[in-house]
UniProtKB/TrEMBL annotation:
It is a peripheral membrane protein. This is unspecific monooxygenase. The keyword Protein biosynthesis does not apply. Keywords: Endoplasmic reticulum, Heme, Iron, Membrane, Metal-binding, Microsome, Monooxygenase, Oxidoreductase.
Amino acid sequence: MAVFLILFATSIFLIYVWFQYKFTYWSKKGVDGPKPVFLYGNIRDALRRKDHFFQPYCDSYIKFKHLPYVGMYSFYRPVLCVNDLDLAKRILIVDFEHFQSRGIYSGGPNDPLAENLFNISGKAWKQLRVKMSPTFTSGKLRTMYPFVESVASKALSYADLYYSKGKPIDFSEFYDRYAMEIIANVGFGVECNILTNPQSEFDCCAREYFEIKSLYWSIIRAFAFIAPDLFSKLRIRRISPKVENFFYGLVKETVSYRQKNNYKRNDFLQTLIDLMNGQIVNENGDIKRVHDFPFSMNSVAANAMLYMLAGYETSAKTGQFAAYQLALNPHIQTKVRDEIDRVLAKYDGQCTYEAQNEMVYLNMVLDETMRLYPALRAIFRRCNKPYKLPNSDVVIEEGTLVFVPIQEIHMDPELYPEPKKFDPERFAPEKKAKLHPCQWMPFGEGPRKCLGVRQGYIQSKLALIKILQKYELLIDERTSVPLKLKTSCLVWAAEGGVWLKLRELNNNNDK
């Protein structure tokens, strides 16, 4: 027993010494930063769920704002947190070739749903990005638009039902269901009626994917992020078999049906099927053959999941937080409604693709919402070849993670006076055009900027347009003001939901 205790104590001591050695990485390079803690580095409170996952990096921006960059640690792994906008521009845009990877697990044979455009890097990413870019042209979005508009009409019926019962609506739940129905419809080619059927298998499996409740899967996701190379070698599943089997099986079944029956539908899934068949089809039906570009059923399934990843939380969170701010700011809500009425009058009351494109002020509202509540609070990249920082002797080595704390940049009073104030005028087109390219980055920036930006605006806008035509939004007493935000989620989420009351516009009776 004594020998065992000595060996155990020696092992702990050696691990401690090893960590302390690792924690000298930045100081040896002359880079300042917060003091790391044994085992955790600088992310202890985040792992304990006392803080949001990206909070340590946001805190470093506040404390070390006078420095262009800060050295931090995710466990023993060095992370460079970038505070300077010009340096962020070099990393994300100008010198992108050094920072192509997001630094997360990119999937493999044991994880077919992970190998999508968001995760992969290098030559495979470049090829797929080029092939998928035509999916999000104005012409393609116009062909998919009727599906989104149809779901938005169902969303209005959902609101009508609650109003008729005199009940407030939890807009967090409402927008989650609305966005997920669009994902199912456009991304997977199926109608699930999630707005009226919360027990839909599609919705349940999707929520299990996004809302990780078990400790095991929380650790697995963190491990895949912190040590992607080791994770890949160990061939561990990153997604639960239940979720993976459901979505992979759904895609495979839908693809098989369309291929067998020569059935085509103007949705995102059809674009992926076309790629699998070696072709790119534009909005006019013109076909361009694709050569030497392998795109398997795994690729179709993985990139259908990408549509969910990119299109769900961003549009759902933006929509619900925009509704919250409109309820808090009646004068802004009135201005949005006036624009909606004015534009739709030009289109005989029809909310067409062209009509929603003309709603500039509503876009400004969404932009300001995403400034206050960016879906991801930080952009992360992984250095894929050594990079010497400008005007410095510091070299970022291959494999080093780089973080840009979007949230704190968006809340910097030197960049946005009165940053806590909701002011859509900050994003008037002429003002937005003058912003530093890394001053507002809810969709990322550079070559890896989200492809589906315009689709996201459409999804967030349409439900608001439908509801604001008929109802005034009012804060319900169940909604905390200011909002309390969950620390357990990777993206912004309201603790307790966003509860709003509806008041019908043609009578002023509060319900």
